[in-house]
Amino acid sequence: MLLSLEAFKQQKFDQVAAKIMADPEAYLAFDSVSDFYKAIWLDEFPQGTTWSATGLDDGAEQFYAVIEYGNHYLYISRMERVTVKLGIRHHYNKNY
């Protein structure tokens, strides 16, 4: 069975996301959004992955991040507790 490069990259994204979901505290130990963008573990995601983050700066204690590849995404929030969710975007309104 042949896997496409896209399917391989999607699988890699899901594997890295699963590692983060299994032990979020090991990955989310930073004090600012700048620290998030410098996190070495972001390089584990396949090329083409995008991420964005907000919070923590100017004394904020809350943090939100979304890491995406293809139609899969990892949502991270840290408030009183850490929440990490892996999801798939469904494009119901595509015009083909």
Number of helices: 3
Portion of residues in helices? 25-40%
- Rg (CA only): 15 Å
How does the major sheet shape up?
4 strands, antiparallel
Show unreliable segments: none
Tally of separate domains: 1
Strands of the widest sheet, in order across it, are 1-2-3-4
Task: Note the beta-strand portion.
Answer: 25-35%
> Shape, please?
globular
Query: How do the helices and strands follow one another from N- to C-terminus?
Result: HHHEEEE
Mean pLDDT: 86
How far apart lie the N and C ends? 28 Å
Structural class: alpha+beta
Number of E strands: 4
Structure description:
With 96 residues, this protein is of the alpha+beta class. It has one domain (5-88). The chain contains 3 helices and 4 strands; from the N terminus they run αααββββ. It has helices at residues 5-22, 24-27, 33-37; strands at 50-55, 63-69, 72-78, 82-88. The protein has a 4-stranded antiparallel sheet with strand order 1-2-3-4. The longest helix has 18 residues, at 5-22. The chain is globular, with a radius of gyration of 15 Å. The two termini are 28 Å apart.
